[in-house]
Amino acid sequence: MALVASSSTLSPGDRAPEFELPGTDDQLYTPASFADASAVLIVFTCNHCPYAEAKLTALNTLATEVEDLAVVGINPNDATAYPEDSFERMRERVETGEVRFNAYLRDATQEVARAYDAVCTPDPFLFRVTDNGLVLALHSRIDDAMGPDATPKRFEMREAAEAVIAGDPIPVEATPSRGCSIKWTA
């Protein structure tokens, strides 16, 4: 398992790169699909990485408890080499309630992960919803627990999301997320 830190070239104020991806509910999603929210958290994640799994509870909590926030998981991993990351397994996890994101999407071509310059799982991007689409507010970690077995003391992304929704300044500094490298097909 290669441990890497997120390092996207997207900066606050940049528009979200466009995509059209299938969700586990057989719907196609674009960034505009989430325009009814005030903020959208797009997280490149997967089913097998211990770092991504360690953040699942926090992401489910964000998706179910923070009003006006859409949490969108995007799995770009090579499912041939990592069968746990297959679309079928993603569906199972949603159906059993393990994953409670607003949408869990499959990036089989990995073009979306490349457009966002995502490098690890989890790699979270928090966007403000504007009349002109999604605008990056913060690219940072979910919380301050940097290892799979660590206990978080501060839930930074929740603080940031609540600030974006309220129209307040973000009260946390951007800190790179850490996790398993995205499993590229080539």
Q: What strand line-up does the widest sheet have?
A: 6-5-4-8-9
**Unreliable segments of 5+ consecutive residues:** none
Span between N and C termini? 17 Å
- Strand count: 10
Number of helices: 5
Radius of gyration: 15 Å
Helix and strand run: EEEEHHEHEHEEEHE
Largest β sheet strand count, sense and barrel closure: 5 strands, mixed
Mean pLDDT: 94
Beta-strand content estimate: 15-25%
Protein structure class? alpha+beta
How are the secondary structure elements laid out?
Elements: E1 3-5, E2 21-22, E3 28-29, E4 39-44, H1 50-54, H2 56-65, E5 69-75, H3 87-95, E6 103-106, H4 111-116, E7 120-121, E8 123-130, E9 133-139, H5 156-166, E10 178-181
Parallel strand pairs: 4-5, 5-6
Antiparallel strand pairs: 1-10, 2-3, 4-8, 7-10, 8-9
